[in-house]
Amino acid sequence: MAPSGRSRQPAERSNASQRAAMRWLIDELREVAIERMSLGQRRRACLGAALLGPPALLVLDEPDNGLDARRLDALVALLRAHAAAGRTCLLASHDAALLDQLSARVVRLGE
Predict the structure, then answer these.
(1) Got the DSSP string for 19-85?
(2) Does the pLDDT at position 96 exceed 70?
(3) Which one of 48, 52, 56, 97 is most buried, counting C-beta atoms within 10 A?
(4) Residue 86 phi, psi (nearest 5)
(5) Among 86, 106, 109, residue whose Cα is nearest residue 98
(6) Contact 18, 51 (CB under 8 A)
């Protein structure tokens, strides 16, 4: 429930979900220099930077590359929250399972 006793609006729930997913993705990286980060950590830091704002359009190329299963779940939650807030994500991926999880509209290129 919202502080006023009313239930939260969809956009509020979406923003709360996005903040929780964001913390899960990047909280541990606050004190790590970028040059000391692994591939997955760098991907998460870049994703966090891209979501500051939040942007109306998010363009991602293989955002799941280098992420472990737990972080992949957080990425899916974050992208779902982004879409639920009425924002757009253009995502390039070879991972059909990721696209299925996102219920994404798929356009196949270069087959």
Answers:
(1) HHHHHHHHGGGTTS-GGG--HHHHHHHHHHHHTSS--SEEEEESTTTT--HHHHHHHHHHHHHHHHT
(2) yes
(3) 48
(4) 85, 15
(5) 106
(6) yes
Phi and psi at residue 51, to the nearest 5°: -90, 0
User: Tell me: the pLDDT tens digits for 58-95?
Assistant: 999 998 888 888 888 888 888 888 888 888 999 999 88
Whether the CB-CB separation of 78 and 22 falls below 8 Å is answered with yes
Instruction: Name the residue among 74, 9, 70, 87 with its Cα closest to residue 47.
Output: 74
Q: Are 66 and 39 in contact (CB under 8 A)?
A: yes
